Task: structure prediction
Amino acid sequence: MSATHERDLRTGRSLWADGPGLGVPIRPLTQAISVDVAVIGAGISGAFMAHGLARDFSVAVLDRRPPLMGSTVASTALLQWEIDLPLVELGKKIGPTNARRAYARSRAAVDHLRDIVARERIPCGLKPSRTLYLAGDEYGFRALGAEAEARAAMGLESAFVTAATLRADYGIDRTGAILSDGSARADPARLAAGLLRRAQQAGARVYSPVEVMEAVSDPDGVTLLTDVGHAVRAKTVVFCCGYEFPKGVPTPGARVISTWALATTPRTPCPAWLREMLVWEASDPYLYFRMARDGRLIVGGEDEDSPTAHTSIPKLKARTGRIARKLKALLPMVEFEIDHAWAGAFGESATGLPSIGPVPDMDHAFAVMGFGGNGITYSVIASQVVGAAIRGRADPDADLYCD
Result:
């Protein structure tokens, strides 16, 4: 274990926090302001929201932290269209038709994300990826076989992989897997920073540090009272607080848990297939990993049902050690050294779908809470759903994300 690893274990510093290209101009809130839309949160959800609105509305982004420094830098940035709950199981909860709609929308969101990055020329290392979903203790090979058939039937690029093929092609000893196309990977902090800078070029302003202490709505808009003593008046407010639930915003069926991640040293020798693959397993808790552009393995998992466990340094060491052992057991041919280890808050919902929609009992207010492993994908969808509502239009899938 390197000295760098020991330093990072003590601080819990995310791999993304010190990367290049994170500069986002900020300003203090020195007077009361009035805007069309106030976005609370300068992470990935707030960045997509501001980017989607700034060309048509005056936008102010407020955050009590520096931009990007919440759950965004804790992400491992597996930009998947696959939802935590398999298509077949999701159908049992919300109905087969709605489940297919949710999967199709998630798949389209990844394509839309890629289009934005290409059109705006955002340097975030975005690369297309395939996914390998391994049989585990929650869903075995029979369940994954049925899942692959259900996805293929609706046109999603998924195929079942047998145990023999897994061993021969990937060196992995599992009873089966699903191989899918159409996902991606990126640096989440650079992605969010690029989106915020593009929004600023269109006129948006980012205020930090500013904490919203209270939001008061009336028939004409919302007044935000802040800790710096200056109010923000907005025609519409959008809470993009990640896994920090806004006060007074109901979150039925949702819970905040803790999760851990690590990154190996650059240029870790790995099988060639890992360069284009996101790997995760049908287990609870599940292991997931991918390769970064510089040859690091980025690995996560070991979720714990606690909203605060991620703040513990002893748990950081213990959980990332367990993640490393699981990775070694799955890929015994890979020798690696841990370079970074970090933890963060993570959200779960009853269905694996996020909560996106109007705030109950508060006029002119929306809340975006990206539950599940598809946080960045859901941030894209949220910007579309809320953006349509603010423009007076109805998104055809908005009902999927409202309780």
In short: Residues 96-120 form the longest helix (25 residues).
